[in-house]
Design brief:
It is built from seven helices and eight strands. It has about 230 residues and is α+β, with helices and mostly antiparallel strands.
Length: about 230
């Protein structure tokens, strides 16, 4: 996440700490949104009962993990949670490693159905599997099924990441067959007009509140070029 957004993120900021989640999860993906595996360490300050990780944290992890698993399979790689169902199998001990496994079961247009589970991480090489990690089932702590839907506005949305990369813009043009009436230049101009309107409104409000604050030489002039250049 960008630094400006990180400070307001639950999973990237609030839950990160030496006695919480000391480092971000180690994530592996397969295919175009087919499977995802994430390994995390859960500290002692994430408990509901002493020594047992809070069930709400496991739900948050599954919500994030299942969503990120299917995003690449959606048309514009973004979605929101429409449904999330969980079955808790056994308590999750704190101060240990867990592995989250997710698999996209079905995609229909803007909808994706995903299954996932959180297991205790197998230590050592005895449980190593050469095929799909999904088939290698360990001690299951919680299972989940989710439905994720891409918002209708997603096809009009160009993220800053894609706008900053030429490959992202070209990929968007190819996928949508052009800009579909939305051009980046027009978007920037619209934002500039909105900013000018806000400055004018603010200036008028401040002038009405304090008539003495106007300039005697040029009483109603606001240099908008200075703010919009």
């Amino acid at each position: 996440l960008p630094e400006a957004m990180r400070a307001h993120s639950l999973t990237a900021s609030t839950l990160i700490g030496d006695t919480k989640i000391p480092v971000p999860p180690l994530v592996f993906t397969k295919g175009h949104g087919e499977e995802l595996v994430a390994i995390s360490y859960l500290g002692g300050d994430l408990c509901g009962h002493v020594g047992i990780i809070h069930g709400g944290l496991l739900a948050t992890m599954l919500d994030e993990g299942l969503a990120r698993c299917c995003f690449a399979a959606l048309p514009n790689r973004v979605g929101v949670t429409a449904r999330l169902a969980l079955d808790y199998r056994r308590p999750c001990p704190s101060e240990g490693y867990v592995v989250l496994k997710a698999r996209t079961e079905r995609v229909e247009g803007r909808k994706a159905w995903v299954r996932g589970r959180v297991e205790v991480l197998k230590m050592g090489t005895e449980g190593a599997v050469r095929g799909s990690p999904w088939e290698d089932q360990g001690e299951v702590l919680v299972e989940a099924e989710g439905l994720f839907v891409e918002p209708k506005w997603a096809k009009w949305h160009i993220s800053r990441r894609d706008a900053d990369e030429e490959t992202g813009i070209e990929r968007y043009r190819k996928r949508e067959g052009g800009w579909c009436g939305w051009d980046l230049k027009h978007i920037l101009k619209r934002r500039q007009r909105e900013r000018i309107a806000w400055l004018r409104y603010t200036y008028q409000e401040s002038f009405q509140a304090d008539p003495q604050s106007q300039s005697k030489s040029n009483p109603r002039t606001l240099d908008l070029d200075y703010f919009t250049s």
